[in-house]
Amino acid sequence: MQKGALKDKVAIITGGATGIGKAMALEFARLGADIVIASRNVKNLESAAIEIAEFNKKVIYVQTDVRNPDDVENMVSKAVSKFGKLDILVNNAAGNFRVPSLEMSVNAWNSVVNIVLNGTWYCSQAAAKQMVRQNSKGAILNIGSTHVLSGNPGTAHSTAAKAGVLALTKTLAVEWARYGIRVNYISPGPIEGTGAAVKLWPTPEVKETVLNRIPLGRMGTVQEVANLASYLVSDYADYISGANFILDGGGHLNKR
Fold first, then answer.
1. Where is the signal peptide (predicted)?
2. Per-residue CA distances from 140 to 43, 87, 151, 229, 248 (Å)
């Protein structure tokens, strides 16, 4: 994508201070978008905002817990107060950790489902209401996982929540199309430089097992996710909605 492809767009990225979220924020800023990053960790937000400002000084951060609808409303309100509108929402905030399903506590289940599924809903509805008030088009992008295609033992909470987000993506794409709001989903496979990589593939042996299942023979990068995301939220993708884009080097096709 060339510089200026997202000029005059205002984008909120949840979980935007680290990993894939920060990579998307940096790329959107490089392409000209005004940026709002949100997460719970203020120190991470401050650091990320400094990096993003090197591409576009129109960046703010809002400490936000997406599990809290009041926090979400504040996030959208701050974005509109600063930049006057909202064009793009990326639901990237997530939580995940391995735990056998028979040992999973209610708190463990709820902690992930509340972030991934409920948080995505709260943010999507708040953003869509603002887009409708503006009487302008909008793009919502949800970041999920290839686990929704195959399941993943040890992450029942996250896999179920992200599968719910995929179903929500398809439903809202149809329901909100009349307002010019597009809703899409990216299913990344194993991606280097993320919290998930540390938690789900913690040892060289586990990582090697994962790599052996990927036909392209490597993990993806956060920049590759950001590149795809940039296209999907841009006007170049104006006829794409309700779609799930798989970014995993062909791993979901390999039955070995």
1. none
2. 26, 9, 25, 10, 21
